[in-house]
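Quick question, first post here. What does this chain look like in 3D?
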Amino acid sequence: EVQLQASGGGLVQAGGSLRLSCVASDVVFTRSAMSWLRQAPGKGFEWVATINRWNTSAQYSDSLEGRFTISRDNAKNTMYLQMNSLKPEDSAVYYCTHGNSRGHGTQVTVSS
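> Answer (accepted):
Ran it through. Tokens below.
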């Protein structure tokens, strides 16, 4: 079973940046596309972005307005989410997925 460990969350002021990482183990890393999801308090999961297996194509939620960048380093079994110009509404627990697997999340809190 794939193990996914997200990290890099924290508390940041509005307008700031964070870089999330997701390390995968016990998996053929390039077997699947990967995604970031997020869940704000009291809300359901929201899809954020997806990167294909070879780091050549990415899709983003329209709500991000071009502020986030997803990428992966297949040599390091790691996926990233660079988040810029953060807003309080970006506050959520962020989760990474590989295929149908989802790891534990990392908390992002953006203060106004």
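The mean pLDDT is 95.
The longest strand covers residues 18-25.
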